[in-house]
DNA sequence: GTCTATACATAGATAGAC
DNA sequence: GTCTATCTATGTATAGAC
């Protein structure tokens, strides 16, 4: 699927394949200007190709966003399922690690990629594969919170997990208010500590 | 500025002035479909007027969003400055009330209006009046958190206030994941309690 | 105050040369 | 694999009748 036959000796790209150039441009533009506000022309120009060439790599504009969303959320899912399986650690410690990992990803990535999750356009039918992945991640948080609060009823698990997940994702909002700049190292750990205080005990 | 001379005997609107109809339509469409993805034609149609009539009430599309944002954030600002002045109450109690008020507004409004705050297009220059108001609100949270933690240094205040503000606003994300439906009554109080646990003591 | 008509620009997507 | 050229639809905004 990647642009293997792409010229390597010249061109505006220094960073990788043309496909990745498009994704990088999308990451930049979609989370700073919005999806509907960015034209395929502007997107292609930022990627250093013509508007038409975009359609050699992606069937349409939504597919660009979908690829971007999946590429962004995947590391969190992998880590969540890895941590979920580490039965040697107590649930609170596993929840702490998951929160710290996700919050750190969101806080320190060069661009505020998490802002992509907040685009209203994500509700579009074409992006349902991403929403399904996202639901898996939320499910992992719920399961871990449930193990931390074995005596509480099910709906209580969900409500607390929503608070925890919300707190982790609130770094996206914080960055957005600050113009998108990365947050200081240690932010992830700080948020994980706050999350555990919400869970209680 | 409101449509005083508007016909009252007939028309597609049941709820108020035409200007407010436009704002209602914008509230609905902008936070479910996005700003750039909604055309003025679609906006006008949802408000029950022709596309051209929109321009009798607003100079352009950005002005619709600006009015909507200001109208949405104003109650929070008014409450924040009222609570800030109630010196009879201890800081923690004032912070608790502010969090509960804001979180409740965000959680129970018929539409998920807070999602407007998250639109990337809010960074546009034309919307700077809103961002200024928003900064006042964040300032109120910082001041209150500072009073709750008188022994902590200044940057610590900011970091904790960001967590608290983020937790309050995370109800926007929670609603968004749930398709925009309102959250149960009591959500605001629950979030305020969690916020105080983050502040500590 | 609301409309139809329209100007004019830009949108997304395709065709076909190289 | 990339481009220019282009199609067709849709975008924002204005003009002017009623």
Gist?
The structure is a homodimer of 201-residue chains. With 201 residues, chain A is an all-alpha fold.
Verbal overview:
The structure is a homodimer of 201-residue chains. With 201 residues, chain A is mainly alpha-helical. Chain A is built from 8 helices and no strands. In chain A, helix 1 crosses helix 2. The termini of chain A are far apart. The N terminus of chain A is likely disordered. Chains A and B meet through helix 1, helix 7 and helix 8 of A and helix 1, helix 7 and helix 8 of B. Chain A binds a DNA duplex (18 and 18 nucleotides) through helix 3.
Overall pLDDT of chain A, averaged? 93
**Biggest interface, CB < 8 A:** A-B, 37 and 37 residues
Count of alpha and pi helical runs of chain A:
8
- State the major sheet of chain A: none
Oligomer, anyone? Answer: homodimer
Percent strand of chain A: under 5%
Write the layout of secondary structure elements.
The structure is a homodimer of 201-residue chains.
Chain A: H1 18-33, H2 40-47, H3 54-57, H4 61-84, H5 91-108, H6 128-148, H7 154-177, H8 187-199
Helix pairs in contact in A: 1-2, 1-4, 4-5, 4-6, 5-6, 5-7, 5-8, 6-7, 7-8
Chain A binds a DNA duplex (18 and 18 nucleotides) through residues 3, 5-7, 18, 39-41, 49-56, 60-61.
